[in-house]
Design goal:
Helix 4 crosses helix 5 and helix 9 packs across helix 13. Helices cover 48% and strands 10% of the residues. Strand 8 and strand 9 form a beta hairpin. Strands 3-4-5 form a three-stranded antiparallel beta sheet. A three-stranded mixed beta sheet has the order 9-8-10, with no helix packed on it. It has 14 helices and ten strands. The mean pLDDT is 92. It is mainly alpha-helical and 429 residues long.
């Protein structure tokens, strides 16, 4: 598949203005003012200190005495740019690359862009998919988009949703849903009929309406698969590390990468289904034991490499190239453990295909962990059964056959980490 990875920046809502006002406090602080405690409703985190300092360097005291409507756009953009620079830097440390960073503000006719939200609403209206009406209050739950008044509604029920959905607020501004419809319409018009969104699990109630909207704006030609991801519980030796996004007391992704390494973070994030809670223990993921899946997989590849080093010492004249090993007598591999691993390797291409088709990358991590586990078991079996040892100095033919076998295992163990973006070390100490 030709995949474009896109990062959607929520830079058009009221929360961005809250971010800007929080950054403006830090700007005043950078100018030497005692700002005291951060007021309720603003962001107290130290991550905005650098934004405040940058504003002070760029503007000096010029912004301090301006009215809010004058300084807010400047500070808002500086805060967004500062946050996105941090995000890009952290993603790069994790080896995550996005081809496009898409701004929500660009949909609303700002900064010289056409108003894609208005265009989307008018397109739906022309097809009689929008009407003016009232909605009943939601049953047993809050809905931020519900207002007891006549409003502009999208016929979401026509496409499988439970109720029709509002597109405009009472002040005439767009609802989040209207922006999101325009964004997915943009994806489709840019050539992406198959869309995959990654959302937090708290947005589960939003899925059906968004899938209904995608059906509407694409005339049924587009498909939306939403992956709901649970939060990560960060632990240290079994004890939960407390985090609070609101208070500013939190552990950043970059801090976790710096502590345990990129490989551990990437593999552990994929070593579970996206809708399952991940318990990430900072102590466990650097532990060199079979209880650490990252180590267990990488150690299996390192063991394969060590077998070839042993073979080179035992048989200096033996041709260890893949072409030569392909001529080995594989009929000598008769143990059920060996045959079981051969069957696993044979299933590898089908597993990759199934993982891609179902949008379930955890299948790849599960597979490589199972393969590593089977290989380690065979290694240990050789301790008690000399005839199963990979390098037998008294039997050149069986050694060649088992080296061909190990080469196959090693190839898959190297390939799968490459697919999930972790390294396959030649040795581990």
């Amino acid at each position: 598949h030709d995949v474009t990875r896109e990062y959607y920046i929520n830079d058009a809502g009221a929360q961005v203005d809250v971010l800007a006002r929080s950054a403006f406090l830090r700007y005043r602080e950078a100018l030497g003012e005692d700002i005291g405690a951060i007021p309720e409703g603003l962001y107290p985190g130290d991550y905005l200190v650098s934004v405040g300092k940058a504003l002070a360097e760029q503007y000096g005291p010029a912004l301090r005495d301006k009215a809010e409507w004058d300084w807010l756009p400047l500070v808002r953009q500086a805060a967004i740019d500062g946050m996105m620079a941090m995000i890009r830097d952290d993603l790069a440390a994790l080896g995550v690359v996005h081809e496009l960073f898409f701004s929500e503000r660009s949909l609303q006719g700002r900064d010289g862009n056409s108003n894609a939200v208005h265009q989307t609403i008018e397109d739906l209206r022309a097809r009689d998919l929008i009407y003016e009406g009232r909605l009943p209050p939601p049953k047993g739950q809050k809905d931020e988009d519900w207002e007891d008044r006549e409003q502009t509604l999208f016929r979401a029920t026509k496409f499988g949703d439970d109720v029709d959905r509002p597109l405009l607020k009472s002040d005439g501004s767009y609802t989040y849903f209207a922006n999101d419809i325009a964004y997915h319409r943009s994806k489709f018009t840019r050539g992406f009929a198959e869309m995959i969104d990654v959302w937090g699990a708290d947005h589960g109630g939003y899925v059906k309406r968004m899938q209904a909207a995608v059906k509407a704006v694409t005339n049924g030609e587009g498909a939306l698969d939403v992956k709901l991801c649970q939060l990560v519980r960060l632990l240290r030796n079994g004890e939960q590390v407390r985090m609070s996004k609101r208070s500013g007391d939190f552990v950043t992704l970059r801090e976790v990468i710096d502590e345990v390494g990129r490989d551990a973070v990437r593999f552990m994030m994929i070593f579970r289904k996206n809708d399952a809670t991940l318990d990430f223990d900072l102590a466990k993921v650097v532990e060199q034991s079979k209880d650490n899946p990252v180590f267990y997989v990488q150690y299996a590849h390192a063991r394969c490499a060590s077998i070839f080093r042993q073979a080179a010492e035992a048989f200096p004249d033996l041709d260890l190239t893949p072409q030569a090993l392909a001529e080995a007598d594989l009929g000598l591999l008769t143990d059920e453990s060996e045959i079981g691993i051969v069957k696993m390797i044979a299933a590898y291409p089908r597993m990759i295909d199934a993982a891609a088709s179902s949008h379930e990358p955890h299948r790849v991590a599960f597979f490589v962990h199972d393969l590593a586990s089977a290989f380690h078991s065979l290694w240990n079996k050789g301790k008690d059964s000399p005839q199963l040892r990979f390098v037998n100095q008294t039997d050149r033919k069986s050694t060649s056959a088992r080296l061909a076998f190990v080469h196959a295992v090693r190839s898959v163990l190297a390939s799968v980490p490459a697919v999930v973006g972790v390294t396959a070390p030649e040795e581990m100490r």
